[in-house]
Amino acid sequence: MGGFDGIRGIGILLVLFNHAWSPLSPSVAGIIDVFFVMSAFLITTLLLQEHRDQNDISMRNFYARRAVRLLPSAYLCIVAWFVVALLFDRERLGTLWKEALAAVTYLYEIFFPVGLGALDPRLVENLSIDQFWSLAVEEQFYLLIAVTVLVCIRRRWMVQLAVLLALAATWISWQRWVGVPGPVPIPNDPANANPVVRGLSLLWLSRPDSLMWGVGLAVVNAKLPEPLPAAWRRWLPWVGGVGLAVSFVSMFLSSGLLLDVTSKLGLPYPYVPMAPRTPVDSDGQIYWINFGHTLSAVSVMPALLCMVRYKDWIANRMLGWKPLRFLGRMSYTLYVWHTLVFFVVLDVLGGNSVLGEKWRVPILAVITIVSCLPIFYGVEQRMLRIKLRYASEKEVLDLNTGRMISVDDALRTGGSKGPSA
Length: 421
Hints:
Layout: H1 2-20, H2 30-54, H3 59-88, H4 93-104, H5 108-111, H6 116-119, H7 132-154, H8 158-177, H9 195-201, H10 208-223, H11 230-250, H12 256-264, H13 288-309, H14 314-319, H15 322-348, H16 357-387, E1 395-398, E2 403-406, H17 407-413
Antiparallel strand pairs: 1-2
Helix pairs in contact: 1-2, 1-15, 1-16, 2-7, 2-10, 2-13, 3-4, 3-7, 3-15, 3-16, 8-10, 8-13, 10-13, 11-13, 15-16
């Protein structure tokens, strides 16, 4: 499924570009929703396949795969941040150790939630590893999903699970639409509030609903006939193509170009404030954050279904371009490490005073990709080979040849599998 890696490749470029110059398009934040849907869809599909093939789900192997895949690079990055901070910016250490504790326990989005800067900018002035919020959300999902799927399969509750998650995701989307960023009220004094309460007050900005949509899509895909009826081949690719386009266009609704267009058309103002203090009351204006996360997540779902069901779909072929697929396979490394590379280039080496707005985006992206290559090959590729020892599939994709090979052959020859999940 080259399309999945291709989307990851485009997505990580959007993350690098937007973090290099945040005014570029704040609504690029929607790419995380797409990543969440894809991740939940792939993980749930693999669990359903494992139960179908083996009549069981090995919890030991599942959690071993997750640990081997995610922890080494992330923990190494945290250690590297401490080394850099000790050498060049010791003032960061006071916040960094708190961030590290939240990150290694995968509670980052609770103690340092998305939108915290809009409540009190002083609380986020020295954050270093704030990208770990999304890793925390996914890890919490991984801790729950394997047991949930196994119980629901045994009880024949998978359809009920999909319906329940769809309802929950719809409710969370509605909460954001009416300007409520979390399940508890925002504290009046965020700086001195209980950190857990403050985190829960912004929980919907961490988009757990996107993971719920992904699980639901996996259940729908498992229930559909194989192959799909011939009539579906005529309309589903069109729906998937439109959905893919809508998802990516939605991420640029807050860019300067589209803001000019939408304002001329009299459409709702799509700027993306990260956290309204109270339900949005802005003279009838609708902000991107009210609808954008849901739009990015839901619209990409038919495209993912097409990628799985129609291997020769044109979007699969286009997104399967080798450079995009390579970036997609590197996406986890780049996402985890890019803030450290940016800090070293901009702050330690003085790049902020040298790089202008026009050139900093591509230059930082290239430097980050090159800097992360040793970590990708030296750490992550080795971990992926270890991960094969706990594989649930009988065959995996050899990324060197593009052919399916047995897990035993992959272990013997060093082949690796994709798309990574």
